[in-house]
Amino acid sequence: MDINIEKAVKEIESKGFLDLDLDPSMNLFEAIEDLKKEKNAVLLAHYYQEPDIQDVADFIGDSLGLAQQAAKTNADVIVFAGVHFMAETAKILNPSKKVLLPDLKAGCSLADSAPAGLFKAYKYRYPDHLVVSYINCSAEIKALSDIICTSSNAVSIIDSIPKDQAIIFAPDKNLGAFLNKQTGRNMRLWDGACMVHEIFSLEKITKLKIRNPKAKLIAHPECEDVILKIADFVGSTTQLLKFAVTDNCNEFIVATETGILHQMQKDAPFKTFIPAPPNNSCACNDCPHMKLNTLEKLYLCMKYELPEINMVEDLRLAALKPMNRMMDISRAAGLIG
Ligand code: SF4
C-alpha cells in the first residue's frame, strides 16, 4: 500500500475521514459515477447535505425515505451521505452489505443528547412505560426502545398504541411536545434537542414575516414551540418540501436546516425560499455535522471503501426489532408500500 494511504488509513480513527490530497482538476462528479458502477454502490444522501452531494446522489430523502431505500437496495455497497446514526441505521437494516460514511465525525447533537447509560437508568425508573424513540438516536438507544419513529410517521406510530399505555418519548423534547399536542397524549419526554432546530429566533422571524407579508412560515417539528405556534405549516422535511412545491403561495420562510432549500428551488424554480434566521450572527442555519461531508471525502470513501460502519451482531439485532415495528406500523397505515 502507498505510504500516504497507509498513513491516512491509520489516522481515520482520530480524523474521522481519509485525509488524502486530490488533484484539484479532477472531475469528482464523473469519478463518483464511475465508482458507483465499478463497485455496484448506491449513494443515499440526506436533504441537509451540500447541493453538490445531493446532485450526485441516487436517492435524496429524509430519515424515513432513506431508511426505506437502504432496506430495499440490491447494491453491494451503501454509501451514506448523512450523519453517523443514519449510516448505522442502514447497517442495522443491511448486515451483509458494506456501509460507508464519508466522515465518521459527522455526528448529531440530538443523538448525542441521549447517552445510552443515562437513558437505560431513566427507562428503569418507569418499567410500565413503552419507549418510542425518534430515529435520530444511536443504535444503543434504538436497542433500548420498543418502537422507532420518524417525523413523517410519528403520529401514526403513537396512535397505534393503546391510549392507556404510558409512553416515554426520546430523544427530542420539542418533537415530543408537538406530538403530545397532536395525539392528545401525555408522553414522558427525554430532555434532548437538536442544536440546529432549537436556535431559530422568534424575534428575527417575526421581523422577516413583517418584511415579507405574503410569505408563509413552514417549520420542522424539532423547532421550539414558540416557532411552531406561529408557523403556517409544520411537517417532516419531506412534508415541507411537498407543501412548498404544491401550495399556491409563492414565498416561504423555511425553519429547518438550509440544505432542503436546494431541492425546493429545483422543484419550484419560480418560488422564493428564505431561510429562517437563527439566534446568532448568521443569516441561515446549517447543521455543522451534516456539512462535514464533502464531495472530496465522498470520493475518497468510495474509492478506498473507508470509513466503514461495523456493528456487534447482538446490538444490531436488538436495534432492528423496534425498526421493524416502525416499518410494520407504517405499512399498515399506508405510509409506505
Ligand atoms: S440537523 Fe439536528 S437532528 Fe439533524 S443531524 Fe444535525 S444536529 Fe442532528
UniProtKB/TrEMBL annotation:
GO terms for cellular component: cytosol. Its main location: cytoplasm. It is an enzyme of class 2 (transferase). Keywords: 4Fe-4S, Cytoplasm, Iron, Iron-sulfur, Metal-binding, Pyridine nucleotide biosynthesis, Transferase. One of its GO terms (biological process) is 'de novo' NAD+ biosynthetic process from L-aspartate. It is found in: Cytoplasm. Binds 1 [4Fe-4S] cluster per subunit. Pathway: Cofactor biosynthesis; NAD(+) biosynthesis; quinolinate from iminoaspartate: step 1/1. Catalyzes the condensation of iminoaspartate with dihydroxyacetone phosphate to form quinolinate. This is Quinolinate synthase. It comes from Limnovirga soli. The gene is nadA.
